């Protein structure tokens, strides 16, 4: 065993969209990038559980559209970021991670986890991880089984078998059980043998690859071709699109775990939640004496057992019970907590009607920072733009619009054709239609400016890029 193989490789799967947490979580900015269970975004919180002695720098697998969001939240961790051209469920993502891990050492122990789970007891997690890693080095694919605290119908279950010889805390798996109804879930809690399926796995790269070869050879062949044809730039590994999309879309549970003879489980009580709905977030949130959980500028009167969240607008709730109210800058959700699983149906309905708020926020994130619309009218719109320290926009021009930039805070260096202009607070620059321009933040604080666009067409696709730090076309 090499020094590399004696350590654990955290593999973070960040491909989900968190539809049931709409309107906060949307495809353009899903739940793993939001601070839900703490004051840190969930992806950053997940990575923090897997750092320090004994851990290798993390690997993250994500949608190409989210690559700079992931890179920003994993900054300073020397992470390798694997880009999927499109989501193909967990088995292809894990196959790609295993093949890349194998390059450094086939016996590398991989700790595979979702980017969007909450864990309340990290020391207990590490105890369970140590047992799982021992099982992995013995040739097992080990999952974590969460001791149930309620008859939850939104999770799959695992029936644990006998403890494996020589592997304290690691048990055989008698069977996997699909999501039950509430009566059967209550029976599972009563018998003490059933655990929630957490979707975390620990295994060596060689064992995962061998089991994928045994049970899903076509999937493994497609992903292997995608890895061999991958383009690597900066910290990104761009999987070859055609090859990766040839892989079947299937979960690792169906592809391997329910078919392999090497599956095992570590029972654990670590305060785990997949935060798969607003009701699940209410479960783990601090509450007042009336059972209400509130985040943001919220006032609650004569209400009980509610979850109320506002991302900026003062929100008042009076006389409600078991309700969820979530307010963002462009959408409001109000429902009974018992209907939390039906939010996905609402989002599907919005998508069918072509309503943009179904998938996108008013704030749009870019590798250099973000922007948001302030007002839009006929032939003009106004945006607020924030640029990170040291970041710069692409060198570009527009065919249909002119722009006027006014610096609100910070300092900007603006290139306009052959000029270079330094702008400070309350200074501005005009960019006529067709001029080649670029903006950079040379300072140590965020650059904030107001952009006024005017012209016959104001779409984001009216950009011709000549040069871009972030490799965008």
UniProtKB/TrEMBL annotation:
- Which Pfam family, just one, is annotated for this protein? MannoseP_isomer
Identify the SUPFAM superfamilies for this entry: Nucleotide-diphospho-sugar transferases (SSF53448), RmlC-like cupins (SSF51182)
TM segments? Answer: none
Catalytic activity, per the record?
alpha-D-mannose 1-phosphate + GTP + H(+) = GDP-alpha-D-mannose + diphosphate
Domain (Mannose-6-phosphate isomerase type II C-terminal): give its ranges.
Answer: 358-468
Assigned EC number: 2.7.7.13
Query: What are the GO BP annotations of this UniProt entry?
Result: GDP-mannose biosynthetic process; polysaccharide biosynthetic process
Entry keyword annotation includes Zinc: no
| InterPro entries membership | GMPP_N, Man1P_GuaTrfase/Man6P_Isoase, Man6P_isomerase-2_C, ManC/GMP-like_b-helix, Mannose-6P_isomerase_type2, NTP_transferase_dom, Nucleotide-diphossugar_trans, RmlC-like_jellyroll
Which segments constitute the MannoseP isomerase/GMP-like beta-helix domain? 301-350
Report the sequence similarity comment from the record. Belongs to the mannose-6-phosphate isomerase type 2 family.
| Protein name per the record | mannose-1-phosphate guanylyltransferase
Originating organism: Neoroseomonas marina
């Amino acid at each position: 065993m090499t020094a590399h193989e004696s350590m654990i490789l955290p593999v973070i799967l960040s491909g989900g969209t968190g539809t049931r947490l709409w309107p906060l979580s949307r495809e353009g900015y899903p739940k793993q990038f939001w601070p839900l269970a703490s004051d840190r975004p969930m992806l950053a919180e997940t990575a923090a559980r897997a750092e320090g002695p004994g851990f290798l720098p993390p690997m993250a697998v994500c949608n190409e559209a989210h690559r700079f969001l992931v890179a920003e939240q994993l900054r300073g961790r020397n992470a390798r970021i694997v880009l999927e051209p499109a989501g193909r469920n967990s088995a292809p993502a894990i196959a790609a991670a295993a093949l890349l891990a194998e390059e450094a050492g086939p016996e590398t122990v991989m700790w595979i986890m979702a980017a969007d789970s909450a864990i309340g007891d990290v020391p207990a997690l590490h105890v369970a991880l140590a047992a799982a890693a021992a099982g992995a080095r013995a040739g097992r694919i080990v999952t974590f089984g969460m001791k149930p605290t309620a008859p939850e119908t939104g999770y799959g279950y695992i029936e644990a078998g006998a403890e494996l010889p020589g592997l304290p805390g690691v048990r055989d798996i008698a069977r996997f059980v699909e999501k039950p109804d509430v009566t059967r879930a209550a029976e599972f809690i009563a018998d003490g043998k059933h655990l929630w399926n957490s979707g975390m796995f620990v295994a060596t790269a060689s064992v995962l690859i061998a089991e994928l070869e045994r049970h899903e050879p076509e999937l493994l062949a497609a992903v292997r071709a995608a890895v061999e044809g991958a383009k690597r730039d900066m910290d990104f590994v761009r999987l070859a699109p055609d090859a990766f999309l040839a892989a079947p879309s299937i979960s690792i549970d169906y592809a391997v775990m329910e078919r392999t003879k090497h599956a095992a489980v570590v029972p654990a009580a670590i305060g785990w939640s997949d935060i798969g709905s607003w009701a699940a977030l209410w479960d783990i949130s601090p509450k007042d004496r009336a059972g209400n959980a509130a985040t943001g500028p919220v006032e609650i009167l004569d209400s009980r057992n509610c979850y109320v969240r506002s991302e900026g607008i003062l929100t008042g709730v009076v006389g409600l019970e078991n309700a969820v109210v979530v307010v963002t800058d462009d959408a409001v959700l109000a429902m009974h907590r018992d209907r939390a699983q039906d939010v996905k149906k609402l989002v599907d309905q919005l998508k069918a009607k072509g309503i943009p708020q179904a998938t996108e926020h008013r704030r749009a994130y870019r590798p250099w920072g973000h922007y948001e619309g302030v007002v839009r009218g006929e032939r003009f719109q106004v945006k607020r733009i924030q640029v990170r320290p040291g970041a710069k926009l692409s060198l570009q021009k527009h065919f249909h619009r002119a722009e006027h930039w006014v610096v609100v805070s910070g300092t900007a260096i603006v290139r306009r054709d052959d000029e270079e202009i330094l702008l400070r607070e309350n200074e501005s620059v005009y960019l006529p239609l067709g001029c080649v321009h670029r903006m950079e933040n040379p300072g140590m604080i965020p650059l904030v400016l107001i952009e006024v666009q005017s012209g016959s067409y104001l779409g984001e696709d009216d950009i011709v890029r000549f040069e871009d730090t972030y490799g965008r076309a």
